[in-house]
Amino acid sequence: MIDPELVIPDPKRSIEDEAIKPWTTNSYWEKYQDLLDFCHRHSIPTRIPWEELSAEKRRMIWEGGLDFYGVKGFFQWLEGRAHKLHIRILLSKYRRYTLCPTCGGTRFREETLLYRLGGKTIAQIYSFPISECLRFLSRLGQGLDEASSIILREILTKLDYLVRAGVGYLTLDRQSRTLSGGEGEPHCGPGNIPGQHPLYPG
Questions:
Q1: What pTM did the predictor assign?
Q2: How many domains does the chain have?
Q3: Are 137 and 194 contained in the same domain?
Q4: Domain with 8 in it: what CATH number?
Q5: How high is the pLDDT of residue 62?
Q6: Alpha-carbon distances of 12 from 19, 48, 51, 122, 126, rounded to whole Å
Q7: CA dihedral 78, 84, 87, 88 (to 10 degrees)
Q8: Mean pLDDT of the chain
């Protein structure tokens, strides 16, 4: 769910003073211009603090109308493009998150956490830094059947790629919204393949 308090973090700012955070970047400058045009057409003040606008005016900006998609429509449009990594990262910055009381934030079903690999649950393995996870799984290669060995080799190959890409300090359970700009963009350099993202090399 999109959190209005993240979209408009400082209600003391006016529309012209960049109150609506996602439209303050060059990437979405056109959206900001569309907003100004909409406000002018409907006599919505753009130079007073957001918190001083009437509830109806704020609703019009958020919900939009026949001549403007609104903040809500903008995020719906982004949802339709969420197959792109940078869009998922952008969306994650404005979503409200609550801790699941069942899984405790691990995002694994309870029965999944009953199984152990090398004495660790999958949630514990996901919490390892990638470099540590690579070392841990590398020690599990002996005594596996052929199918399991193939799967393990694939995993180790990807983890090794991530370490060589310079993100071995990240954990596999790291949420995309917490990544920095550099971590969330494709890397290219020694050991990296142009056009591939280090977190999703496959």
A1: 0.54
A2: 2
A3: yes
A4: 1.10.8.280
A5: 96
A6: 8, 8, 6, 45, 41
A7: 100
A8: 83
